[in-house]
Amino acid sequence: MIDVSKGTVEKYALLFVVCGVVFAANYAQYQVSGLAHMVVSSLRLSSAEFSAVLFAPFIPAVVFGMPAGVCADRRGVKALVFFASAVSAAAAVARVACSSFATLFAASMLLGAAPCVINAIALKVLGPAFGDDTDRAMGWFYAAGSAGIACSLATSPLFAAAGQAYVLAAVLFAVFGLLWLLVAPSADAVRAASDGGAGDSVPMAGAFGTVAKMPMIWLVAVLLGVALASATAYSGYLVSALEVSIEPQTAGVLASFVTLGSIVGSVVGPYMRAQFKDYRAFMALSAVAGGVLMWAGEAFISTSSIGLMFAIGIASAVAGPVVQSLPYMLPGVRDGLAGSAGGVVSTVSLGLTFLIPVVLSCCIGESYETLLLGCAVLFGATALASPLLPSPDSLT
Prior knowledge:
Strand content: under 5%
Number of helices: 19
InterPro entries: MFS (IPR011701), MFS_trans_sf (IPR036259)
Keywords: Membrane, Transmembrane, Transmembrane helix
Organism: Collinsella aerofaciens
GO molecular function, one term: transmembrane transporter activity
CATH architecture: Up-down Bundle
CATH topology: Growth Hormone, Chain: A
Protein name: MFS transporter
């Protein structure tokens, strides 16, 4: 049995595989964006159909995120993650044979099996292994997701055919799915040790019911969802807004620095938080800084610089790992309910990440600069929730 106790190499092997799964998930999802010229022309997709295919992998997380988290508390994580990785690998390959919007949408939706499960159980797996450093582990988890997007957008256009890119994504899922079988026994062992077997004795409905009665879980889920949605939508609208005044190639390069900044921000954020006596002050400051920088990116869109784009990426990502690690620190969640709490946070946050950009587009229309401003205001407004978060003394 592998020991994932603090100070061992094995817990970092566990972190590597968890990060690998989320890297593979984002790499596979955003291949469609990198291969847009091939996919749209070959299947004759409309802009609405293309958007639906791109965001289809979010659907399983919204629908099954909570059941996946509760199942992890009740039955463990070994079989759950491996099965989800296998489904995603099969879906990635199936995209090769897709000849219509309906089939590609279905395959893309099944592609979301692995990210659905890994987002729901990440806190449950990494929390017991890293303890008080859980936010730092979650920082690497976030960084891996951003790296998957960046690598996908950079490498997908290099393939001569979309099918070759899809096969590579399937290989990534298969590799990390098999590696998971090596580290999963340690994850279930540390789960049992940390909750004393409580997860096995609590009925699935009871586990969700207990978590659902915790207001802080819902607050964290909504706070994370609004922050992720505004940052994600900002990145999505940025290229189109930049292309109004500068060359498309230059716009793409500038926008890529937001993603690079988010990778750095995800990793350094927890270390920055450690410099504050009260993490809530860090949360408020990072939200305001992110909102102001995002506004600056919109206000000076015609003269945007690499430095500004990089700073926006950092500021919009530093608080994410800290927020997502909070549920594990709440009294009662560590005792066999981390998976259920992670499922709630995953479902609500990813659901908002999908819905908020749609609502913004419907309300504001085609004005990309106004859409960027709306994202900046939303992100900055999350600072208002900081005083409502639990005090450091109340966390375990």
